[in-house]
Amino acid sequence: MSSITIRGATAADLDRITDIYADAVMHGTASYELEPPDRAEMGERFDSMIAGGFPYLVAEKDGIVLGYAYAGPFRARPAYRFIVEDSVYVAPEAKGHGIGLKLMQGLIAAAEAAGFRQIIAVIGDGRPDSASVRLHEKLGFRHSGRLEASGYKHGRWLDTVFMQLPINGGSQAPPDPNSLPERRFRSTTSS
User: Fold this and answer.
1) 114-124 pLDDT, tens per residue?
2) C-alpha to C-alpha distance for 110 and 71, rounded to whole angstroms
3) Which residues pair with 123 in a beta bridge?
């Protein structure tokens, strides 16, 4: 597919994002949700990410959103503030055309620009041959753990795979005091 544009998601994209995610929930194993959230819930999730300054991107061709990706908090405790967890979903008709790769490349760049230090992938149904595992491996993520039979969906047990990618020097340098996670932390502890 040519002329794919990766851009920041807007509220106007939420109907399509909701549809893409609903398909993933109903037919896939990447998400462990069993019922797709409605448009209002997806809007609340989107608003939360945007309010936190987290990157949220869409892939678009000819005005049609074909996929989306975002990086959000990995865990709520403040010591985790430099780590984000990625999510990427591609519309069924657009799979296999490199859209997930382009979205993830944009997401990694945005997470680096914000000053995060690690990106964690929590991959449902993390079989070695899964498209998500292969995508993350291609981008340099390393395997960092597996929870066996941690989810049950579509009549079978699923393993969850953890992968991670160090960015901005990972653990080899102290945090940047001007990074988004550090500025957000200082603003919450000084109020």
Assistant:
1) 999 999 999 99
2) 9
3) 161
Residue 133 CA to residue 126 CA, distance in Å, equals: 6
The tally of CA atoms less than 13 A away on the side-chain side of residue 79 is 0
Q: How many CB atoms lie within 10 A of CB 126?
A: 26
Q: Is 133 in contact with 141 (CB distance < 8 Å)? A: no
How much is the average pLDDT of 54-82?
Answer: 96
Tokens 């993390």, residue located = 126
Amino acid identity for residue 60 in this structure? E
pLDDT tens per residue across span 140-150: 999 999 999 99
Give the pair of three-digit tokens for residue 12: 């106007």
Helix ranges restricted to H, 52-160: 99-114, 131-138
How far apart CA 158 and CA 55 sit, in angstroms, is 28
Q: Are strands 83-90 and 118-124 parallel, antiparallel or unpaired?
A: parallel
Say if CB 78 and CB 142 are below 8 A apart. no
- What are 6-65's pLDDT values in tens digits? 999 999 999 999 999 999 999 999 999 999 999 999 999 999 999 999 999 999 999 999
Q: 81: which DSSP letter? A: T
Q: Is the pLDDT of residue 85 over 90?
A: yes
